[in-house]
């Protein structure tokens, strides 16, 4: 009888092990994909691509028992050779090949030159061949940065006493209302794809006090801009027993501080590869919505056209203002008008035309929307009625408040937008593995 007892130790070494210096002069095995071959005559450099990075292998005619012509780009191989220190190599070492085992062969030439430092091709081509373009080391590094953001979000909130939840993405009614819903037939019953986990995460505050989720959301908005997607990943949290909506902003600031340190340390390689300048989040300014509009109107001589919302150009100018005046790439814009916020947003007791809510702008782009929620059952129903909305489909949500809920609030962060701004791209599709927009449903 045989038993499985855990992870089976690999006979192949990792880049980290080989780069440590402890294996210098020793024979090792390593697996990877041929990223490119540089033929120098008697010697050739076979560059292996692994998850951790590139490894330089040295092929020597007459010493390596295979023909160089037998090797080609995108071939998966297992090599055996001697580790040798080489400062000019990508990882500070190279492997002098003694044996090459071919594990798999490509059937066609790659449609993109992924071995180039930068993919000199259109975004459309990169997305059409997404699984290929991401083999480029710079392209895939963006998604290691994205991994760091999600990891930082989970780690930080877990340490702050939050519980991770998983809410359904099929429902009978949208949390935000409006017409931007993907509607579908669910066993002959009308259904929608979730715009947000809003109702569920509020309900779960009554269970766990503090909850978070990392999951897709769907918006049937007919946008075709560089900042919009129809499916994106939202980092959501909701926290109970708050005294003010500023506690939510403080929690997000703490998450950003934790994540930026994580990027500096454990993702330093990708940060360096992409030339990322880690922003200072030691303190983030906050400004009221109406004050922000006034400030940029006066400084940049721009007429205020819409007193109830921020236009994209205004967001850019607000970001520019706070970077010029305070050296901050981030700014919290607070107290948005009530008429532009969902029904569950708590109005400001001092002036009910505004809400206890906020957006976080990063270099002039909204990446977060959040605020305090109405927790009183009667007040919630009154606001629904005042907006001439129906309670149909929200019965279970409202019942939660009927039986008592603590003061609470939360937020949602657009993962792809935050990634895009961090890595210095100007199109959100560059920071999305497989984008879904007006014209793209594949791959």
Describe this structure in words.
The chain has 12 helices and 18 strands. With 443 residues, it is α+β, with helices and mostly antiparallel strands. Helix 4 (137-159) packs across helix 6. The chain is elongated, with a radius of gyration of 26 Å. A hairpin with a 2-residue loop joins strand 16 and strand 17 (365-372). It has helices at residues 15-19, 123-128, 130-133, 137-159, 198-208, 246-265, 268-274, 289-300, 312-326, 377-386, 395-402, 415-423, and strands spanning 27-39, 43-50, 53-60, 76-85, 93-104, 163-164, 170-171, 183-186, 189-193, 210-218, 231-240, 286-288, 330-334, 347-348, 351-355, 357-362, 365-372, 408-414. The chain has an 8-stranded mixed β-sheet with strand order 6-10-11-18-17-16-13-12, with helices on both faces. Strands 1-2-3-5-4 form a 5-stranded mixed beta barrel. A 3-stranded antiparallel β-sheet has the order 7-9-8, with no helix packed on it. The two termini are 44 Å apart. The model has no long low-confidence stretch (mean pLDDT 95).
Strand content: 25-35%
Poorly predicted ranges (pLDDT <50, ≥5 residues)?
none
Task: Indicate the overall shape.
Answer: elongated
Report helical residue fraction.
25-40%
- Spatial separation of the terminal alpha carbons: 44 Å
Number of helices: 12
Q: How are strands sequenced across the largest beta sheet?
A: 6-10-11-18-17-16-13-12
Radius of gyration: 26 Å
The mean pLDDT is 95
Supply the helix-strand structural class: alpha+beta
Order of helices and strands: HEEEEEHHHEEEEHEEHHEHHEEEEEHHEH
The strand count comes to 18
């Amino acid at each position: 009888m045989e038993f499985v007892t855990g992870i089976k130790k690999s006979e192949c070494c990792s880049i980290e092990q080989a780069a440590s210096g402890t294996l210098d002069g020793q024979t090792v095995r390593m697996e990877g994909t041929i990223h490119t071959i540089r033929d120098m005559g008697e010697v050739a450099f076979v560059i292996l691509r692994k998850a951790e990075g590139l490894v330089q292998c040295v092929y020597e005619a007459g010493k390596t028992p295979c023909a160089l012509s037998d090797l080609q780009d995108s071939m998966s191989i297992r090599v055996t050779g001697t580790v040798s220190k080489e400062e000019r190599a990508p990882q500070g070492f190279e492997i002098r090949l003694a044996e090459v085992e071919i594990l798999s062969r490509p059937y066609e030439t790659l449609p993109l030159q992924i071995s180039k430092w930068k993919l000199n091709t259109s975004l459309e081509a990169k997305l059409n061949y997404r699984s290929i373009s991401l083999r480029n080391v710079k392209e895939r590094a963006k998604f290691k940065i994205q991994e760091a953001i999600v990891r930082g979000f989970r780690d930080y909130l877990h340490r702050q006493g939050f519980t991770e939840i998983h809410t359904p993405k099929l429902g009978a009614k949208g949390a935000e209302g409006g017409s931007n819903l993907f509607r579908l037939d669910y066993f002959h019953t009308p259904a929608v794809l979730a715009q947000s986990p809003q109702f569920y995460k509020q309900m779960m505050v009554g269970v766990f006090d503090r909850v978070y989720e990392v999951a897709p959301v769907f918006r049937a908005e007919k946008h075709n801009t560089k900042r919009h997607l129809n499916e994106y990943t939202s980092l959501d949290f909701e926290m109970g027993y708050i005294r003010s909506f500023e506690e939510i902003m403080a929690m997000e600031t703490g998450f950003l501080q934790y994540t930026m340190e994580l990027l500096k340390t454990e993702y330093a390689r990708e940060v360096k590869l992409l030339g990322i300048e880690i922003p200072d989040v030691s303190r983030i300014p906050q400004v009221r919505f109406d004050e922000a509009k006034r400030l940029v109107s006066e400084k940049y001589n721009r007429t205020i056209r819409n007193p109830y919302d921020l236009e994209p150009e205004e967001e850019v100018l607000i970001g520019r203002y706070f970077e010029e005046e305070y050296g901050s790439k981030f700014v919290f814009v607070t107290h948005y008008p009530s008429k532009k916020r969902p029904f569950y947003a708590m109005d400001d007791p001092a002036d009910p035309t505004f809400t206890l809510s906020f957006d976080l702008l990063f270099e002039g782009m909204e990446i977060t929307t959040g605020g305090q929620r109405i927790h009183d059952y009667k007040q919630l129903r009154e606001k629904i009625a005042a907006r001439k909305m129906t309670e149909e489909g929200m019965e279970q949500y409202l019942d939660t408040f009927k039986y008592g809920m603590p003061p609470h609030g939360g937020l949602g962060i657009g993962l792809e937008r935050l990634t895009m701004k961090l890595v210095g791209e100007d199109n959100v599709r560059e920071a999305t593995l497989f984008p879904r927009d007006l014209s793209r449903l594949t791959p």
